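May I ask you to comment on the folded chain given beneath this request?
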Amino acid sequence: MGFYPKDSLPNQFDVVWCLFPEEGKKLEPGPARPTLVLDAKVDLDSGVGGLIVAYGTSADAENTPFLDKGPDLVIDNKAAWHALGLHSPTTFSMWASRRKRLIWADKHFVPEPFKANSSIIAGSLTDEQIARVKECFKARGLDPYW
């Protein structure tokens, strides 16, 4: 596993490409998908970066067991999803069990697999989208990372 430099750590509310672990597979890398960075930290002792990311999917709550029908960040405007480096409308789950804490390394974070010469960081939420994330956390009664 190759650790990425801590100065390349994404910012909170960036959309990044992640090999998000599948349900029941602990932290084993899964298929590449967009995820939303909810928190980014560097361990002071090791100097290794880590992220808490929220699962992203193009499916809706009716069509996937990975969404719980609670308030989530839905990016359904074509201009908005393109600005975030996404290919289609995307829902980022705010459900606590659909978040992972992962080390900032090539084991879990990769450049977008569908585009040549792409970056791991696909885009950043707008202020309005960030406000919607915060509203989702509040509506769910979750402790925020900010």
